[in-house]
Automatic annotation (TrEMBL):
It is found in: Cytoplasm. This is Ribonuclease HIII. Gene3D superfamilies: Ribonuclease H-like superfamily/Ribonuclease H, TATA-Binding Protein. The gene is rnhC. One of its GO terms (biological process) is DNA replication, removal of RNA primer.
Amino acid sequence: MASLTKKMTKQEILDLRQKLSSHIVKETKPDYTYYQIKTDSMTITAYTSGKVVFQGQDLSWMEETESENNTYPQAGSDEVGTGDYFGPVVVAACIVSKEAAQKLSSLKIQDSKQIKDDQIRRLAPEIKAVCPHSILIVQNAKYNDVHQNHNMVDIKCRLHNQAYVNLVHKGYTLPDFIIIDQFVQKNSYYRYLKNEKEVISNIHFETKAENKYLSVACASILARNAFLETWDAMEAKYDFHFEKGAGSSVDICAKSFIERFGQKELTKVAKLHFKNTAKALSL
């Protein structure tokens, strides 16, 4: 079994837990740790010292690679909503030319998780104005239907690929340098796509890419903005305040939603396979 140790801030450790929330098979809290979680492919132990140990059969995909963050043109993609019980899953892909990078340089663009939502809403139109992009929104009813036969990683692989395919169909030429914020091994990514009619190849996979590459950061903002717009529409439709994330407050929120609108309606606003569903029904 391979082992890899990284030094991370507390916020990065908490963000990692949130990002992997839908993949957790078992979670414990040994002494001096924030958590120890097991997924299908690895065990992650996050210590309060900031040391994070990854253990699995193949961790080569997590190794840091030489950064090419100033290479333009570049295309990047990122996803939002995979750790939220309520709301859609959104994937965006974005092409950034050298000229676009210069125009965006004053905006201090970074990973959407580090930017407040009101700033996301201001930045998204400026990115759209100068960068070719593709945004895919999977509403909850569709997500729940697809998830019966495809797990979350499978769904994300297909969405990232389709976002790039859509850019090609729009008439854009993809750059030689394409980046995905690493969430799965490269070989596994392409294995999930083996039955797809069109597959974009030669993609560079790198962890924490949203903090290293402008194209991924822009895609992250576009995805987050689309998520927020969909969230707004969802709250307006039901005249109901939904809680973000997947914590205990979400359980209570789900219970309240069920009481007002019925359990059947939950499939239109939530990812039913999350543990929150069972918790809400047991409250």
